[in-house]
TrEMBL record:
It comes from Zea mays. InterPro entries: Ubiquitin-activating_enz. The keyword Thylakoid does not apply. It comes from the Eukaryota. The keyword Zinc does not apply. This is NEDD8-activating enzyme E1 regulatory subunit AXR1.
Amino acid sequence: MEAPYPPHEATESRSAVDTVLEEQRYYVSLQKIYQAKAEFECLALEHHVKEILKQIGRDPDSISRAYIKTFCKNSRKLRICRYRSFKEEFSSPIVSEIQRYFNDEDCSYAMNFYILLRAVDRLAANYSRLPGIFDSEIDEDIPRLKTVAASVLSEMGLNGASLSQDLVTEMCRFGGAEIHPVAAFIGGVASQEVIKLVTKQFVPLGGTFIFNGIDLKSQVLVL
């Protein structure tokens, strides 16, 4: 620090304020370019939308410019979600997907649970009670549930397939009980999906959600 500073030529120095101001000018200029481009694209889309509305016989102004502008602003994050109804899922099963899930080691347990849950609903409709709800009838309910499950498998195009005997037995032994932590978890998942649909934010699950509490594993089956 005490050494004499060597002689040097004076150089022009720019203050930090000058640098910031120049950067701000660049930023504002760039912002205006993007705004102009966005406005141009919004107008082009508005014209296109009006042409389509005319073609389908609707009022060209039925979709407001503000709505189109919002659409443009969020277009990168938009998703089209299409779902099959329960009626379609039950009456017109996608056999190829069902077979793939059933034979896939990672998805077979979830598929077994799905089929068993449908079989339980059907058995409950026939006997006006859930299987295994009475301890004295568990041994009788196991073959009943197995027969109903085989019928569900056949309707889904899985002729000759069979479910794990252990799962059938456990489903009856379970007796329709509701374990509080599992019920809370499923309720949380359901409420989360409702919020997605109501607020129209984030992407809802695209199929049937199956939670396997034994392995603490959840999966979505697109059926």
